[in-house]
Design brief:
heterodimer; A: 314 residues; alpha/beta; 9 helices; globular; disordered C terminus; B: 232 residues; mainly alpha; 10 helices
């Protein structure tokens, strides 16, 4: 993988409430997720990194030549894709892509060839003559994505959630040396090829973790919801090996279990032993706040300052 | 390798989508026709021949019909999102969106002016010059009134046109003739006709150019603002 830095921040404060500057370097060929819903800074940070919004303070540099992201020369090198994308009435997919290709500087002759390749890659061949505003949200997102690919940018910033069929395309892009940054509201939307996940709250980026660390945290924090018919007594449910923090809800139970396959095997055995049917089984991923709590607690073990050392200058 | 944007193709696209947006509106035909009709029924207008009144009306109403409501439309907002952040930049949208309405006023008005002056020994340069700048002023006024006054701006715009039309009547003071925005076409027409104009045709051209260019700067600034919220 190319190790050059495509995007870097300098003393960047996303909002006025940010505690400390964000130090972020986005490498070529990497995929970073900004995890957080609309109430967090994740969508704003995506806009800031795309040069579409001014941060509270600080700078974002593009490439090795430290180009300001908002300068004219940076245009076309950072592309932003929004889920609220729309087109003027009557504009078809091919009309939109032709306009985007003209803006990207392709001649009429080159446009035909490049659009044909692009639409095959994005699976848009079927809807080239359809009106963009009448497409399904997934196809509309893919159209916006295809248009954003035309200038061949160094950095892609995507505001999610986006369709699952985009995941392999993003992987292709990052393998080709492009840096991908995606703002996503929940862990269920994170592509498999993501390397780093920035967990955001309402003021700042709280933690940056690797995908493997997040996967481990999810396996610990995930909760299973199960429904039996007839209803299983709570005492029996609590006897399930490995089940922790069992909570009852209408018609079923919710609990935490460290191993998914073991939990399912134990549940099936429990149901069979008690002549019950499992009528519902659901896996509940941890919320962003639970993840944040997990990582921030885990990050600083034993730092509880029992003796107020800072006040005592120890 | 960085390529140069294909501006002509971008402009052609903007022309197309702006025209489609404008022609789909029911208001289009009303803006085009209502103002000349109002002008026609104003006191003192019935004595004016049809062609000069049509030249004056089209110079203003052609641009107004195309640009009225465009500034806050979702169609413009979408084009802005597509084009502003590209290498082509914001002027790839701003220039054609000014040019299309101006041409919609200038081309038919100049055509009618040629017809009207055909039997009068030629086409005076003052009329040739004043028409484009009056159309440019009409575009600027429509955009700026809509930006700063939203719906109220459209009403004031209509009143502005009616005032222009009334400037064609004979009873107004010479000072008023130089104060009225985009009223220089009817005054130049009257000057050519040899009656009613207080000043030489060059004065109207001078003021029209000054006003057209001055307002154009403000309009380009307003249209290139990236923080506009669309209303539909």
């Amino acid at each position: 993988m190319d190790s050059s830095v495509h995007l870097s921040t300098e003393e960047l404060y996303i909002t006025g409430n940010s505690d400390e500057p964000l130090d972020l370097a986005v490498l070529a060929g990497s995929m970073t997720v900004l995890l957080g819903n609309d109430s967090t800074v994740a969508p704003d940070l995506a806009l800031v990194l795309a040069g579409r919004k001014t941060p509270a303070s600080g700078m974002i540099h593009l490439g090795d030549d430290n180009l300001d992201i908002r300068s004219h020369n940076a245009r076309g090198r950072v592309e932003y894709v929004s889920p609220s994308f729309s087109c003027p009435p009557g504009m078809t997919v091919s009309g939109h892509l032709s306009l985007a290709s003209a803006a990207a500087g392709y001649s009429r002759q080159d446009t035909v060839e490049i659009l044909s390749q692009l639409c095959t890659w994005c699976s848009l061949e079927e809807c080239m003559n359809e009106e963009v505003n009448e497409l399904s949200p997934d196809d509309r997102y893919l159209t916006a994505f295809a248009a954003a690919c035309l200038p061949i940018p160094d950095v892609f910033v995507l505001q999610g959630p986006f369709p699952d069929k985009l995941h392999p395309l993003l992987e292709d892009l990052s393998q080709g040396g492009c840096a991908v940054i995606a703002s996503l509201p929940g862990i269920q939307h994170i592509p498999e090829s993501t390397e780093r996940i920035a967990i955001c709250d309402s003021d700042d980026v709280r933690q940056i973790v690797r995908l493997q660390e997040l996967t481990e945290a999810c396996s610990i924090l995930m909760r299973l919801r199960v429904r039996f018919f007839p209803v299983l007594p709570r005492a029996v449910m609590e006897s399930l090996p490995g089940a922790e923090n069992v909570l009852a809800f209408r018609g079923g139970y919710e609990f935490r279990h460290t191993g998914l396959s073991a939990a399912v095997t134990n549940l099936v055995n429990l149901a069979r032993a008690n002549s019950r049917q499992i009528v519902g089984l659901e896996l509940k991923p941890p919320s962003n706040s639970e993840l944040m709590q997990y990582f921030t607690t885990d990050d600083e073990p034993g730092e509880a300052d029992l003796f107020c050392a800072e006040d005592l200058n120890i | 390798m960085r390529r140069r944007p294909e501006y002509l193709r971008i402009w052609a696209s903007v022309f197309r989508y702006m025209s489609e947006w404008a022609l789909r509106r029911q208001a289009f035909i009303w803006i085009l026709l209502a103002a000349p009709i109002i002008a026609w029924i104003l006191p003192g207008q019935t004595s004016i021949p049809f062609l000069p009144l049509a030249i004056s009306g089209i110079t203003y109403c052609g641009p107004a019909a195309f640009i009225s409501g465009w500034y806050r439309s979702s169609a413009r907002s979408s084009l802005k999102d597509i084009l502003f952040s590209t290498k082509a930049g914001r002027y790839s949208l701003v220039l054609p969106e000014i040019m299309l309405p101006v041409l919609a006023g200038v081309l038919p008005a100049l055509g009618l002016a040629l017809l009207w002056t055909a039997g009068r020994g030629g086409f005076p340069w003052q009329l040739w010059a004043v028409i484009p700048f009056a159309s440019l002023t009409a575009v600027s006024l429509t955009v700026l009134l809509e930006k700063y006054l939203d719906q109220t701006g459209h009403i004031i715009n209509l009143l502005a046109f009616m005032a222009q039309a009334s400037a064609a009547s004979w009873a107004l003071s010479p000072v008023f003739q130089l104060m009225l925005p985009h009223g220089y076409v009817p005054w130049t027409l009257r000057w050519i006709n040899g009656t009613g104009a207080a000043y030489h045709g060059d004065i109207y051209v001078f003021i029209a150019v000054l006003q057209g260019i001055g307002l154009l700067f403000l309009t380009v600034k307003a249209l290139s603002d990236s923080e506009i919220e669309s209303s539909d």
